[in-house]
Design goal:
Layout: H1 2-7, H2 15-19, E1 25-30, E2 35-42, E3 49-57, H3 59-80
Antiparallel strand pairs: 1-2, 2-3
Length: 98
């Protein structure tokens, strides 16, 4: 039991961060040593969009995020049904791109 307590991390979140930021577009890029994830909010009919958050992480951590996201989507769909997603070809549409 003491070994479990040693490996636990207490995570804190400030009030502003806890409110979150809505994003309806993600741009993902990478180099040999890092992945950059930009989360963006695009307003309909607006010619500009703003990055709401940028996360820079290692390739190994990006792969762990991908696995965790796949697991969570699977659990969500088991509970609420399949998530419908269209393949976005027109880059002027809102969505997630890589």
């Amino acid at each position: 039991m003491d070994e479990l307590k040693k490996n636990q991390i207490q995570i804190e979140i400030d009030e502003l961060t806890a409110q979150g930021a809505y994003a309806n577009l993600a741009m993902i890029s990478h180099s040999e040593s890092e992945f950059i994830l930009d989360f963006i909010f695009v307003q309909p009919q607006a010619p500009k969009a703003k990055v709401r958050a940028r996360i820079i992480t290692s390739p190994a951590h990006a792969k762990r995020i991908l696995a965790a996201l796949k697991d969570n989507v699977s659990k969500f769909e088991s509970r609420f049904g399949e998530i419908k997603s269209e393949v976005l070809i027109d880059e002027k549409k809102v969505g997630y791109y890589n």
